[in-house]
Design goal:
The complex is a heterodimer of chains A (about 550) and B (about 350).
Chain A (H helix, E strand, L loop, with lengths): L4 H7 L2 H27 L3 H5 L5 H33 L6 H9 L8 H10 L4 H6 L9 H25 L4 H8 L4 H30 L2 H6 L6 H12 L2 H24 L23 H30 E3 L3 E4 L2 H8 L1 H29 L6 H9 L6 H11 L11 H11 L1 H14 L2 H9 L4 H29 L5 H4 L7 H10 L3 H26 L10
Antiparallel strand pairs in A: 1-2
Helix pairs in contact in A: 2-16, 2-18, 4-5, 4-8, 4-10, 4-14, 6-14, 8-10, 9-10, 10-13, 12-13, 13-18, 14-25, 15-25, 16-17, 16-19, 16-20, 16-22, 18-19, 20-22, 21-22, 22-25, 24-25
Chain B lengths: L4 E10 L2 E11 L4 E5 L6 H9 L6 E6 L2 E2 L10 E4 L11 H11 L4 H14 L15 H13 L5 E5 L7 H18 L3 E5 L2 H7 L2 E6 L2 E6 L1 H6 L4 H6 L4 E9 L2 E4 L2 E4 L10 E6 L5 E3 L9 E11 L3 E8 L2 E8 L9 E5 L6 E3 L5 H4 L5
Parallel strand pairs in B: 3-8, 3-9, 6-7, 7-8
Antiparallel strand pairs in B: 1-2, 1-4, 4-5, 9-10, 11-12, 11-14, 12-13, 14-20, 15-19, 16-17, 16-19, 17-18
Helix pairs in contact in B: 2-3, 2-4, 3-4
């Protein structure tokens, strides 16, 4: 291989070479190896037998159906919220934006759990206020829950696109003879189209991979995301579990690649020069009120998610005795050990994610061989459903020489590397803003290789580190999809305990422990905000 | 002939700020009319009132004899070229240019013809299938122009369309624009803060400041006979002299008496005189016996290519004078300045910004 001068210069630095070896080794061991383990575990005959299995065909069909339904509604609601938050004349826009971010901080089963409390058989709203007998389990419940849980992702993507659109374009269309309906159709919505496509892909991945809500509310309906766990827990069927997550990873990876390499590049941000921008024109009134109405209705649903769980935590016996009690928190106190386990695991995952993210972003920003491969492996976990990673780590680390299953480390590492894209992309974005000349100045003054990382980049990357740590921490604290596969008896994390309580009908205790978990998450976010001096961008749960 | 576009006492406020303060203008058919003023003078707001993006708080806009003050933008028959072009990024050149025709439900075959014709006019035939981001700045600018022209607007509105082009290209596009407008006889309202652009392009210029029209006239008129100190200062460069009238046609300034053609007014009245740098004549040798000649000394001289700009101290005042570049005038040289009586003009003193409070665009 012919190496350019720049590459040779980098490779002459032992510090860089060491960092490269560590970074690449970690990616191979904790990203690529578990992935390949899952895919290679079933035999070819197992793969070929998939169409013959009624249950798996059903699960696949159900997963695709819920994905189609939930993605459609979540993107529609997300579009309404994106409009509301980017149009200055929609009343209550700041409120809508704040509310829309709330589901992103909830543990992935929380929407489902809360709606069962409110709208289920024993539902406070359905049974006791309206006198209805509603069965929320199954497709309708899951559809509703996933819409509320994942529309914020759609909103963030679409709003990001709409914010880049020059408001003068709508003025220009009117000026050229377009009436309000035509402006909406030919300009406003047309320009939002790449955002809508991107949002649909992101939401579809999350819905397909959604384990937490599905396991609580899907009832008897088989789904790909939950099937793996049922196989493993009920039947210790490793082959079946790996087969089903392999089945699941095909569509999520395909959607991920389409989003990243196709839609992600079709953005209509106007790159015209300076110019006094006109203020956005008034929104077409019927549209404005339609948006306002949708956002109000959905905001109520979002707030009810939190209210339902809080109410559950303080109610004596849900559905029978509505008196106030603190008893559930006493029960939760018995499980406080699980809360500590969650914190330990999440802190570990946060540290590993942030460190690996910064290191890898630094490596891929230089002229090193294989940097594209590194970059690909660093973002790949974003395409993998949590249950896939869970099964992958079980298969990869349940035998010597790396027998980690049963120790807390396996959960820490699985979560850390699953969240790696968040830390990596935060750091890479920060690095892009660093002027190369700063580094040149440093090396001009005698700093070399890793010293450049330490002296120049680390101070600048503190924010990226903090962001990577916080996002990984919050998601780890609330994670269920990986935790269910990797908890060990000494390390039962809170989400796993809650899930068990919900399963056993201990709703009050589950609600109380969820409230405590939320307090921990928001406290962590608040601290990070103090540290970073601004709000951190929330990201998907899954 | 009745005016094509008429503004009557137009007022536009933004909160407490008055952006346009009672503007009345008449623009004839086929006229290239420029609104010239510094940023914040209200010229762009005025253009947007004509386009219908802003509804005036008072006053009226007439297109021929039709009152269009409250008509929505799409029903006005005006077409605008935006400063940043505002091309639709999701449409090709042909779709951008054809947009207005599509909205007017022109049959597709006819629309294609008209799009092709106007693209030929702006020299962009063959670029139909490209997207705006594939074009250079100058080409984007021409697409924007074509998109406005293709609907055959009653009035074409241009909002600083050249300000995003580099200097060389700006000159070329400026000339092309002027040529095209003449050829089509297209009534045009043009907004700019660049006085050179305004002088080069326009049939008529309105100079605005603080939301008011200070002077309307041909470019030459505005340059030669500025009505106020602001106009004289904004359109070109001028020397200003505070003076006191001593008799009709005569003033006293800086200890000398000057003849001023056509000066009326009672003696003792205080006036400000303006004279352009190129209107002052400079002699190296003393000139005796002629009126309006001041003896002075060169302070500094700057070579500007075609001319040499010289500052001269004479009669206790500083004068800016342009001479031919080959005149050997060095600092400290003794010179005579001749101020032609027919070039000295009395200009009105403007209230200062502090006295009025700021405006906005």
């Amino acid at each position: 291989m012919v190496l350019s001068g720049e590459v040779r210069r980098q490779l002459a630095d032992p510090g860089i070479v060491l960092a490269f070896a560590v970074g690449a080794g970690a990616l191979l061991l904790f990203v690529l190896y578990p992935t390949l383990r899952v895919l290679a575990y079933p035999s070819l005959a197992d793969y070929l037998a998939i169409p013959q299995s009624v249950r798996w065909v059903q699960a696949a069909r159900n997963s695709l159906l819920t994905t189609a339904l939930s993605t459609t509604t979540a993107v529609t609601v997300g579009l309404a919220f994106a409009f509301a938050t980017t149009r200055p004349d929609v009343p209550g826009r700041r409120f809508f934006r704040a509310v829309a971010l709330l589901p992103l901080f909830a543990p992935p089963f929380m929407v489902a759990f809360s709606y069962i409390l409110l709208f289920g058989r024993q539902g406070l709203v359905t049974r006791h206020l309206l006198g209805l007998d509603v069965n929320l389990f199954g497709l309708p419940g899951l559809w509703l829950v996933q819409t509320v849980a994942f529309f914020p992702l759609a909103m963030l993507v679409i709003a990001g696109v709409l914010e880049g659109v020059n408001p003068s374009l709508e003025h220009a269309a009117r000026n050229l003879g377009a009436d309000e309906k035509n402006v909406l159709r030919t300009v406003t919505l047309a320009l939002a189209r790449p955002g809508i496509a991107g949002a649909a892909l992101v939401v579809a991945i999350s819905v397909l991979a959604d384990f937490g809500n599905a396991v609580v509310i899907a009832g008897g309906m088989p789904l790909l995301a939950t099937e793996a766990w049922f196989r493993m827990e009920g039947m210790a069927d490793l082959r079946g579990a790996s087969l089903v997550v392999a089945l699941l990873v095909v569509p999520t990876t395909a959607l991920f690649l389409v989003e990243r390499y196709w839609v992600g590049r079709r953005r209509y941000t106007t790159v015209a020069g300076r110019g006094t921008r006109l203020e956005p024109p008034p929104t077409y009134p019927p549209l404005r009120w339609a948006v306002f109405f949708v956002c109000t209705a959905v905001s109520v649903l979002v707030l009810l998610v939190y209210l339902g769980v809080v109410a559950g935590a303080f109610t004596a016996v849900w559905g029978r005795d509505w008196s106030f009690t603190l008893e559930h928190f006493a029960l939760a106190r018995d499980r406080v050990g699980s809360l500590w386990a969650s914190l330990r695991v999440a802190a570990g995952a946060g540290l590993v994610t942030a460190t690996a993210g910064v290191l890898l972003a630094f490596l891929t920003s230089r002229a090193l061989p294989l940097r594209r491969a590194l970059d690909f492996l660093a973002v790949l976990p974003g395409a993998l459903p949590g249950v896939f990673v869970g099964v992958g780590f079980v298969l990869a680390f349940n035998r010597p020489p790396l027998e980690l299953v049963g120790t807390p480390w396996v959960l820490v590492l699985a979560l850390a590397f699953w969240h790696l894209p968040l830390g990596y992309q935060a750091a890479a974005a920060q690095l892009q803003q660093v002027d190369r000349s700063i580094e040149e100045a440093a090396s001009n003054l005698g700093a070399r290789g890793l010293h450049v990382l330490r002296d120049v980049y680390l101070p600048l990357l503190r924010r990226a580190f903090l962001e990577g740590f916080t996002v990984s921490f919050v998601r780890a604290v609330t994670n269920v999809s990986i935790a269910v596969f990797l908890v060990s008896p000494g390390n039962v994390v809170a989400t796993f305990a809650i899930l068990n309580m919900i399963g056993n009908g201990i709703w009050g205790g589950a609600a109380a422990l969820t409230v405590l978990l939320l307090l921990v998450s928001f406290a962590a976010l608040g601290l990070a905000r103090l540290g970073a001096g601004r709000a951190l961008r929330p990201t998907a749960v899954g | 002939m009745a005016a094509h576009l008429r503004l009557v006492n137009v007022v536009k406020r933004f909160g407490a700020a008055v952006a346009v303060d009672g503007v009345s203008l008449e623009i004839e058919e086929g006229c290239f009319f420029t609104l010239l003023g510094p940023s914040g003078c209200g010229k762009t707001t005025l253009l947007r009132v004509v386009a219908g993006f802003h509804t005036p708080d008072a006053g009226d806009v007439f297109l021929r004899d039709r009152r269009i003050t409250h008509l929505p933008p799409h029903a006005r028959g005006t077409a605008m070229v935006f400063q940043e072009y505002a091309l639709f990024p999701h449409m090709t050149v042909a779709e951008n240019v054809g947009y207005g025709l599509r909205m007017r439900r022109v049959p597709p075959a006819r629309a294609r013809d008209r799009v092709a014709r106007v693209l030929e006019l702006v020299g962009l035939l063959g670029h139909e299938a490209k997207y705006p981001h594939q074009l250079s700045g100058g080409q984007q600018q021409r697409v924007a122009l074509a998109r406005a022209l293709v609907v055959e607007p009653e009035v074409l509105l241009l909002d600083e369309p050249l300000s995003n082009l580099d200097a060389k290209l700006r000159l070329r596009v400026r000339d092309e624009l002027r040529e095209l407008q003449r050829r089509l006889g297209q009534t045009t309202v043009y907004v700019t803060h660049d006085q050179e652009e305004a002088l080069a392009l326009s049939d008529r210029v309105a100079v605005l400041n603080h939301g008011r029209v200070l002077q309307v006239g041909t470019p030459e008129d505005v340059y030669r006979n500025p009505a106020s100190r602001f106009v004289a200062e904004f359109v070109g460069l001028a020397n200003f002299v505070a003076a006191e009238v001593v008799a009709p046609g005569r003033v006293r300034a800086g200890g000398v008496e000057l003849h001023v053609d056509g000066l009326q007014g009672a003696s003792g009245r205080r006036v400000v005189l303006a004279v352009r740098p190129e209107e002052v004549r400079v002699r190296q040798e003393p000139v005796d016996g002629k009126p309006n000649v001041l003896r002075g000394r060169v302070r500094s001289a700057t070579f500007l290519g075609a001319v040499r700009r010289v500052t001269v101290e004479a009669a206790g005042l500083g004068w800016i004078v342009d001479v031919r570049a080959d005149e050997p005038l060095a600092p400290q040289a003794e010179v005579s300045l001749e101020l032609p009586a027919e070039r000295l003009r009395v200009v009105e003193e403007e209230p200062t910004d502090e006295q009025r409070g700021g405006g906005r665009s």
